[in-house]
């Protein structure tokens, strides 16, 4: 039996798939991160079409209302995404710090070379 929530879930999943694909096409979202969102949209589509699966999972986990299971899965997904992006930010921060240190060393070497060249030119002119 098709109800409004099923239509909404399937529509939202299809919209999410289209938005993610368009973002990847326009290069606003990398393929690496699009896999997470495509997987989420596919899971939403699967649970939206196959309602018995959602009810079976809820019953297996002793969750009275299948909607609560959807909220739990959404919360776990958001926590996973947050952990994933925290790891990425940590890596980028480390790389940024290393790049800044290398730039500082190169600037120092350039300044020393320029100073040595000026000293050599003064010595030659005297």
Keywords summarizing the entry:
elongated; mainly alpha; 126 residues
Low-confidence stretches: none
Structural class: mainly alpha
The average pLDDT is 89
Gap from first CA to last CA: 98 Å
Helix content: over 70%
In short:
The protein has 126 residues and is mainly alpha-helical. Helices cover 88% and strands 0% of the residues.
Polypeptide structure, described:
With 126 residues, the chain is mainly α. The protein contains four helices and no strands. α1 (4-25) packs antiparallel against α2 (31-49) and α3 (51-60) crosses α4. The protein starts with a helix and ends with a helix.
Give the secondary structure arrangement, pairings included.
Elements: H1 4-25, H2 31-49, H3 51-60, H4 66-125
Helix pairs in contact: 1-2, 2-3, 3-4
């Amino acid at each position: 039996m098709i109800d409004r929530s099923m239509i909404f879930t399937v529509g939202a999943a299809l919209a999410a798939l289209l938005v993610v694909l368009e973002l990847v096409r326009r290069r606003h979202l990398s393929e690496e991160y699009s896999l997470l969102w495509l997987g989420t949209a596919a899971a939403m589509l699967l649970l939206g079409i196959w309602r018995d699966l959602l009810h079976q999972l809820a019953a297996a986990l002793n969750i009275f209302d299948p909607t609560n299971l959807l909220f739990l899965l959404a919360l776990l997904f958001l926590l996973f995404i947050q952990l994933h992006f925290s790891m990425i930010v940590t890596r980028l921060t480390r790389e940024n710090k290393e790049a800044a240190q290398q730039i500082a060393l190169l600037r120092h070497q350039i300044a020393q070379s320029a100073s040595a060249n000026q000293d050599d030119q003064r010595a030659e002119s005297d």
